[in-house]
Amino acid sequence: STVLSANDLGILANVEAMPTAEEVKNFNETNLFTQHHISVATTEQLHTIAKLLLSKNMPKEAWLVLLQSS
Question: Do the beta carbons of residue 50 and residue 66 sit within 8 Å?
Fold first, then answer.
């Protein structure tokens, strides 16, 4: 990624458990999902949103954003 730094990736790697498929599905119904237009975001935009969430100490939410592209 050209957006996520090595530090960002380290934070993501330290998350105790990856979000479940159910959590990813439920995330699609949240305000965060619709507020950032995640359903139509490019990979770079998803990485930018994830970076913002990491800066707010929200690594699980960052994972939920990143998993939208998979």
Answer: yes
Residue-by-residue pLDDT tens, the chain, 70 positions: 899 999 999 999 999 999 999 998 888 777 676 776 777 778 898 899 999 999 999 999 999 999 986 5
- Kindly list the domain boundaries of the chain, sorted by start residue: 6-69
Whole-model pTM: value is: 0.83
Tally Cβ neighbours within 10 Å of residue 69. 13
Structure tokens at 53: 């969430």
Nearest by Cα to 66 from 55, 56, 51? 51
Q: Which backbone phi and psi does 14 adopt, to 5 degrees?
A: -90, 0
Q: How far apart are CA 49 and CA 56, in angstroms?
A: 11
Instruction: Note whether 38 and 65 are within 8 A (CB).
Output: yes
